[in-house]
From TrEMBL, chains A, B:
Highest taxon listed in the record's lineage: Bacteria
NAD in keyword set: no
Protein name (database record): Xaa-Pro aminopeptidase
Boundaries of every Creatinase N-terminal domain copy: 15-147
Length: 406, 406
């Protein structure tokens, strides 16, 4: 098997140590990592199994399948999971100093994604190994993953390059009369041949995305369940968001909100295009989105509160008379300006009300001011930025302007 | 908004009534449907919210977003979810005869997919409305969804047609020297322009799939975490299954295991192709997979136990000396012969040990005997069948034969 570890051993160790530090501060005795993305982050492998991390000492990746492959992918100690109903006994055997008689343990897990059925099973099995409570540790994981290391940043940059190339390659086929779906298929082809894994992972329950969306005119402004600023008519009630079979028309906004996932990492960017000319109101709104993103870019220095960036964007919208159209319309407005990206498209931090976290170097954030006009369409722009000590550095490669096609 | 219901009101009512019958038998007082796919099945809408179904009386879909869109998509009564922390009070108000003082309620939910964090929140909120326990009702949902109605069957047939067309359109580009990824991109393009929603949904935690896989030679035989008979090298540790950048070579098996999702419903099929000629051992194994699928097809009449079909396939493998290669190799063998398909790719029934459920008319099952040869590749065939009163009817449209390219 031509398989090698793609996260260096030192980096895996460092990530585990950072989690152990958080565990010690929070009086957590051990962490059980269950989700494939979290497994990959902390071990370098997303084989099927459970990664057990004690607050001090060596972690073990208990693998159900494929044990052989996991051994090649990770620097963490790997063991066969074996019969699942004996998992509690296995831990008791492997970590005797942790599971001592009479000691009540607090074991954390990624409960924001772990299904309740498996949670109950794990609680029962861990109960057999002593007195344990399985508590929610997902916030610790999300907090750690918020700060990207150089390897992660280089992968997001690679994804940014792929999206820029795919957009360039496809633009000459964006014409009056093509359907949203047909042109999206073309963009997705260009992304895929460049190594897009075929989907962009989302952490949120019931949320799904393939490569974003290309939505035009009135079809773009249809609200959806998707927790984002633009919806899209979609392909029916069983796929009620993103591209539809609507035909791209002259003088209507075309929102090109696309991304991809390269070597595990996603990028997210939006450009607005028009064949001909935008209606005056929408042109104005697009310009406001440009001015908001520029102002946000200036303000994104370490120490600025995420919530503050959202509030300032809201103030700009109010000053421009566009409050009702910002990030959706009416009851279906999304309540944020941007979001962290990385292994998943919906990471922390969120530029939103109540998110009083100060920016830190290493955060990567997609900022996406958009305006929705029912019956007319959606306009806006989205760039992804790395927060550095000196301020925001744009990772997005596509030219930041309205795309006007003849 | 040009949005209409795509599941007739009568059918939605019938599905809810079937669940209510199961609830009455099992002494469940109400059901809370939380997952997008389950929501779509029971309401016709997958907007973000909770569908509350009492064991008798009218259901309510409490929608967070988009309320406006949900009203157009479903025949079920729709209400705004409102402030989530008041959800228990809302139910108490809307269903006073259910939430009576002193009565302990058993409320079921789809706990096989609902994240533990949300489960705990819902338990707390429902607790506020009286004494309630939130129990696992996922088996009831899976059992009901096992039997497809004519609308569902027609959609699976539409998906089968799309896959057959996409395969035909792409085969002339399957040549020596093309990469798995590049040819898969081509297949996916053909699927997408015909309405594939961009992904095939899976119920299993940590399982993901876009359009299946095209895997060739040694790269196909690499084991993965994915719970299926073939793995694939994938695009790195962050996407460790399915297509890789491996180059398709002459005289090696090319496993084309593809599907798509049309109007919510998936199809799953596999064909084996070769440019030139298969090695003798693999040619023989391919012929055994053909004879197993034909024998299974004959045996798939109502009343046959699912477990029995798996056992008979195992016996055929043993008789052919291929037991070690069946559905993966060694420790990484998958333990099934086939699986239900519908809204998700991993539905019930499963043709596996211990699955002592008799076949019934309306089941749709993908049967996929495959053989793995480390270092050489994977061969096999997969068709999807509808169980009728008279036996199995193939839904797969592609010709059931080894594809030999010059």
């Amino acid at each position: 098997m031509n398989i090698t570890a793609d996260i260096p051993a030192g980096l895996v160790r460092q990530r585990i140590e950072r989690l152990q530090e958080a565990m010690q501060t929070e009086h957590i005795d051990a962490f059980l990592i269950t989700q494939n993305i979290d497994l990959y982050y902390f071990s370098g492998s997303m084989q099927n199994g459970y990664l057990f991390i004690p607050s001090t000492g060596e972690a073990t990746f208990y693998v159900r399948r494929s044990f052989e492959r996991a051994k090649l992918e990770t620097a963490v100690r790997v063991a066969e999971l074996g019969v699942f109903r004996h998992f509690g006994q296995t831990l008791l055997h492997d970590y005797p100093s942790l599971f001592r008689d009479g000691v009540e343990l607090r074991i954390a897990a990624d409960l924001d994604v772990l299904p309740a059925q498996t949670f109950h099973k794990l609680s029962e099995l861990l109960g057999a190994s002593g007195r344990c409570s399985l508590i929610d540790g997902s916030a610790h994981i999300r907090r750690l993953r918020m700060i990207k290391d150089p390897l992660e940043i280089s992968r997001i940059e690679a994804a940014a390059e792929v999206v820029a190339e795919a957009l360039n390659e496809s633009l000459n086929e964006l014409r009056e009369g093509v359907s949203e779906l047909a042109w999206m298929a073309r963009v997705e082809y260009e992304l895929r041949i460049r190594g897009h894994i075929g989907q962009m992972r989302m952490r949120g329950y019931n949320q799904e995305i393939t490569t974003g969306m290309v939505i035009s005119g009135a079809a773009a402004a249809v609200p959806t369940y998707f927790d984002g600023p633009a919806g899209g008519l979609g392909l029916g009630a069983a796929s009620p968001q993103s591209v539809s079979r609507s035909i791209v028309k002259r003088n209507e906004p075309i929102l090109i909100d696309i991304g991809c996932c390269i070597d595990g990492y996603v990028i997210d960017q939006t450009r607005t295009a028009v064949i001909g000319e935008l209606p005056v109101t929408l042109k104005h709104a697009y310009e406001v989105s440009e001015s908001i993103i520029l102002a946000t870019e200036q303000r994104m220095v370490p120490g600025t509160l995420c919530s503050k960036l959202y509030e300032e964007a809201l103030a700009s919208c109010a000053a421009s008379g566009l409050s009702d159209h910002f990030m959706g319309y009416g009851a279906d407005q999304a309540k944020f300006l941007g979001h962290g990206i990385g292994l998943e498209i919906d990471e922390w931090p969120v530029l939103a009300k109540g998110f009083h976290i100060p920016l830190e170097p290493g955060m990567v954030i997609a900022v996406e001011p958009k305006f929705t006009f029912p019956g007319q369409g959606v306009v806006g722009i989205e760039n992804s930025y790395l927060i550095t000590e000196h301020g925001a550095k744009a990772l997005t490669r596509s030219k930041a302007e309205l795309i006007v096609l003849p």
